[in-house]
Specification:
Blueprint: H1 3-8, E1 14-21, H2 29-43, E2 48-52, H3 67-70, H4 84-89, E3 90-98, H5 106-114, E4 119-121, E5 129-131, E6 139-145, H6 151-154, H7 157-168, E7 171-178, H8 191-207
Parallel strand pairs: 1-2, 1-3, 3-6, 6-7
Antiparallel strand pairs: 4-5
Amino acid sequence: MSIVTENMRTIVPQNRVIGFSGSPRKNGNSDLLLQMILSGVSQEQVSTESWNLTDIQFSGCIGCEKCRRTKVCTGLLDGMSPLYPPVYRAKGLVLVSPTHNYNVTAWMKSFIDRLYCFYNFDNSRPRQWSSQLGNQGRKAIVAAICEQESPDDMGFTLDAMRRPLQALGYEVIGEVTVFRIFDKGRVKNDEQAMTQAFEYGQRLARSLG
C-alpha cells in the first residue's frame, strides 16, 4: 500500500475549499476569476487553497485500472499524487477553465480524468459504480471564460467540468460564465462577472455548513 493510500484512509472531509485553474496563462483571466471566488469563500471565514494546474507536473490517466484495487491513483506517481489528500479533505471545490477549441484546456481535462480513481466499480455488466466522495455534502462551483460572445462558442466547457463532478458526488451550486474577454487580466474590469464570482464564493462557503 502506498503512502498516499495510507494517508487517504485517515482523512476526514472538512469545511474548506480547494480551487484549480486550468489556464496556461499565469495571472490571467481564469486565475483572477478563481481568486475572486476564493475571496468570497474567505470572507465567510472558510479556509482556501488554490493551484494553477500548469504549475504541476502530471500526466493524464493511462487507463491502467490499478485504482480499482488501491482506491487512489498508484499507476502514476507524479505531481498529482500529493493533491489527492487535499482534494479529498476539502468539501468545497472550484474549477475554472478558459475555452480551448469548444472545451476545457488539456490541463483541466487531465486533472478531471485523474479523479477517476475515486470511483468504486462492482463486477456487474455494465458495471455499476459509486463514488468515494459521495454523500458527504460536497459542493462545487465551475467557471468558464470565452473570447466569443455566444454560449455555443463556449461549447462543452461547462459540461466537461460539471458532469464529472456531479458523478463524483458534488452538488454544483453555481456556474460563472464570462464572454467577450480575451486580453490578459481584462476580466477584472467586468464588474458583473467579478461580483458574481465573489458572491458565488460566499454561497459556496455557506453551503458547507
